[in-house]
Design goal:
This protein is an alpha/beta fold. It is built from eleven helices and 20 strands. A hairpin with a 4-residue loop joins β15 and β16. The protein is globular.
Length: 420
């Protein structure tokens, strides 16, 4: 059967790969001239299995109130006259209830562990180069109050089969000597040794090339206008190429991997996907002094900032901005990240050569992605991964390919099924 994958980000390309390997004839459509040029382009670089807790948790409303109105806060809410934004925000608050937060954490953890195994297998099978480092992630705590809760978090991870251990300041420095400048302020940390880091964009491009070699067709520079349908059957997708010419692409089945734009595409079908864009920022800076640039990926739990070593570059990412589909870059948000670099890793990178980027994370209120069958006969979803697109990409795609082949779910997860 011929399957059209809509979107060539990391989710779409991994979906194409696993579908092709399962025996499907696969084509991919994307408005960009290459794979991975939107949300996948400059993310934080972490494969963070050790962070399954969703943003929506019992503490989140109080944390959000603390940041409210602060332009330098990790979370910035820009109210809009838009029903979707307020509906999403209210749903987010609902997902903060303890039982829902626990359920979402379990789902994300199960998929993340499975996905990490799929990624390791794929890397070994194809020999993909994407500036991979397997030194784990070090979660940094700068207050005794925050670090006091770390043991509980380690226990939570252990219950889900995720290895992590508490680290003293001395143990953290032994793991990553580049932390020396920030050592006096460190209360402690958590080291998750099985986590990884790497450049999601380079991975996506490398895998797209492997897909093409395996017979997957890519329609780049092709904008998707709408889904043509008859009742509950998708007849094709109406598209326009870079020259403005329109046409219809048809297949036996369709998979929506359009990130933040997924909900807009399927709304005319009567399907309401609870996905809203959450803008994130990153800077990419050349390493100035390798001795001061960490090779263990870092997560600053207080500032909600992550830092990964990508070859001779550092990628530092963070902040969450609820501002609709606005992709403009706020220089002040970039300065906040640069300030973190200057304070935490002085001399590590050429800050004056930093490249600032912003992208839209496709977030569901509970951070659980939407994977599985739509209400339509031949339409499937693999979207809504929020901040964990890189972490969950391979597992999500492998699971979806199995479901589309008629296999049972490979992991305990709330895969989407038609209501009727």
């Amino acid at each position: 059967m011929h399957v059209l994958v809509l979107g060539a980000g990391i989710t779409g390309v991994t979906t194409a790969w696993y579908l092709r390997r399962a025996g499907f004839d696969v084509s991919v459509v994307d408005r960009q001239p290459e794979a991975g040029l939107e949300t996948s382009y400059a993310n934080g670089g972490q494969i963070s299995v050790s962070h399954p807790e969703p943003w929506a948790n019992p503490a989140a409303p109080f944390i959000a109130l603390r940041w409210l109105g602060r332009s330098d806060g990790p979370l910035l809410f820009r109210p809009r006259r838009e029903l979707a934004q307020w509906r999403w925000a209210l749903a987010f608050l609902r997902e903060c209830l303890p039982a829902r937060s626990r359920r979402n954490t379990e789902a994300i953890a199960n998929l993340a562990v499975y996905s990490a195994a799929q990624l390791r297998s794929l890397r070994e099978e194809l020999g993909l180069g994407y500036e991979f480092l397997g030194h784990g992630i070090l979660h940094l705590f700068f207050s005794e109050r925050e670090f006091g809760k770390a043991a509980e978090r380690v226990a939570l991870l252990a219950r889900h089969g995720i290895r992590a251990r508490l680290c003293s300041r001395a143990e953290m420095l032994a793991l990553e000597p580049a932390l020396a400048a920030m050592a006096p302020g460190l209360a402690g940390g958590i080291h998750a040794p099985d986590d990884e880091s790497g450049d999601a964009f380079r991975f996506t491009q490398a895998l797209a090339q492997k897909c093409q070699e395996a017979g997957v067709r890519f329609y780049y520079g092709t904008r998707i206008d709408r889904l043509a349908h008859t009742g509950g059957l998708i007849d094709g997708i109406e598209v326009r190429d870079s020259a403005g010419r329109s046409g219809l692409l048809s297949a036996g089945a369709y998979v929506v991997c359009l990130g933040s734009y997924s909900a807009r595409l399927v709304a005319p079908l009567g399907e309401r996907l609870p996905i809203y864009p959450v803008k994130g920022y990153s800077i990419t800076v050349p390493v100035a002094d390798p001795a001061h640039a960490p090779s263990v990926s870092l997560t600053d739990e207080s500032a909600r900032i992550v830092c990964s070593r990508l070859g001779n570059r550092l990628r530092i990412a963070g902040t969450a901005e609820l501002a609709g589909f606005d992709t403009s870059v706020d220089a002040q948000r970039g300065q906040n990240i640069l300030r973190w670099l200057d304070q935490r890793l002085p001399g590590a990178a050429h800050a004056e050569r930093a490249v600032l980027w912003a992208g839209l994370r496709p977030a569901t209120p509970g951070n659980v992605p939407i994977i599985g069958k739509s209400e339509c006969v031949n339409l499937w979803y693999n979207t809504g991964h929020g901040t964990l697109g890189w972490t969950l990409a391979c597992g999500s795609a492998a699971a979806l390919a199995g479901l589309m082949s008629g296999a049972p779910p490979p992991v305990r997860f709330p895969f989407r099924r038609p209501r009727r």
